[in-house]
Structures are given as structure tokens and as C-alpha cells.
Amino acid sequence: MNSEVQINGNRLRITRVFQAPRPMVFACWAQAEKLEQWSGCKDATGCHVEMDFRVGGSFTQKMKIKGSEFTIKGTYEEIVEPEKIAYQVDLGQGGAGRILFEFFEQGKGTKVVLTQDGLPNEMICKVVSQGTTESFDKLEQMFALQTV
């Protein structure tokens, strides 16, 4: 399934249904070793994640995209397993803001809704949505191959 992308000003919303149970999908955001397997656009390499997955904890994610290093940092504000994860994020030159991931049971699958507020403009929203959609494609392929 493709991602449904909505951009409204500096708000980005992406919805995707994964054919995997909600606890399994949630774990892909909650464990660094799983996140490293799929996070990043199709051109991203060498993804490394350090995380303290608890409210008040932080994370740093580094990857290379076309030879340049890209770093994302954040602080977790809310974690309700396996329902939601919210955090403040610093995307470097891509801006900052708040990201909310919500996980809903949908039959045997899981609907994930990402809402990101605070991106600087619509162009950055489009870049972030493309990278996120490509990440979700990789995660979907991992579920299909049962490598998660």
C-alpha cells in the first residue's frame, strides 16, 4: 500500500497501513536496532541510532545521504505502548517541530499516522514526506519478508 500524504502549511500528515500486528510495528520505532534497519530515504546509508526510549529520554539518528551526513535529534514527550509516540525533533537545516506517531489496529494490520508540525515551509514538507514514504516502503518490505 502506498502512503497517504497531506500537507497543510507547515503540517505534514502521512498515513500508512502495514501488514503486521501493532506491537510488532510499534517495536520498529521503540528499538534502535530495528529503527536502523529501515529508517531513512532510499539513498540513506549507514543509519546509526542512539536512543533512551522513555518520556524525557532523547535520541540521535545519523545517516549519510548522497555523501553528506544528516543528523536528527529529539526528546520523547509521550510514549503509550503500543498506541503512540510523541517527541520534539531537531532536523538541523530541515527545521524543528513536534512529531506524533499513532498506531491503530486495522484488522490483522496496523495503521500508522504520522503528524509533524513546525516544518519551515511546504517545500521542506515535501522533502520530508518523500524521505518518510521511502522509509515506510523499506519497513513494509521487511514485514513482507518477515525480517523485522
Reconstruct the topology from this structure.
Layout: E1 4-8, E2 11-18, H1 22-30, H2 32-38, E3 44-51, E4 58-65, E5 68-80, E6 84-90, E7 96-106, E8 109-117, H3 122-145
Antiparallel strand pairs: 1-2, 2-8, 3-4, 4-5, 5-6, 6-7, 7-8
Helix pairs in contact: 1-2
Kindly describe this structure:
With 148 residues, the protein is α+β, with helices and mostly antiparallel strands. The protein has a single domain (4-145), classed as START domain (Alpha-D-Glucose-1,6-Bisphosphate, Chain A, domain 4, 2-Layer Sandwich). The chain is 27% helix and 47% strand. It contains 3 helices and 8 strands. The protein has helices at 22-30, 32-38, 122-145; strands at 4-8, 11-18, 44-51, 58-65, 68-80, 84-90, 96-106, 109-117. An 8-stranded antiparallel beta sheet has the order 1-2-8-7-6-5-4-3. A hairpin with a 3-residue loop joins β5 and β6 (84-90). α1 crosses α2. The protein is globular, with a radius of gyration of 14 Å. The model has no long low-confidence stretch (mean pLDDT 92).
Descriptive labels:
148 residues, alpha+beta, Alpha-D-Glucose-1,6-Bisphosphate, Chain A, domain 4, 8-stranded antiparallel β-sheet, 27% helix
Low-confidence stretches: none
Principal-axis shape equals globular
- How many β-strand runs? 8
Fold-level CATH name: Alpha-D-Glucose-1,6-Bisphosphate, Chain A, domain 4
The topology string of helices and strands comes to: EEHHEEEEEEH
CATH class descriptor: Alpha Beta
Q: In whole angstroms, how far apart are the ends?
A: 18 Å
Largest sheet: 8 strands, antiparallel
- At CATH level 2, the architecture is 2-Layer Sandwich
Could you name the CATH homologous superfamily? START domain
Structural category is alpha+beta
Mean pLDDT: 92
C-alpha-based Rg, rounded: 14 Å
So how many helices?
3
Helix content: 25-40%
> How many separate domains make up the residues?
1
Strand order in the largest sheet: 1-2-8-7-6-5-4-3
% residues in beta strands: over 45%
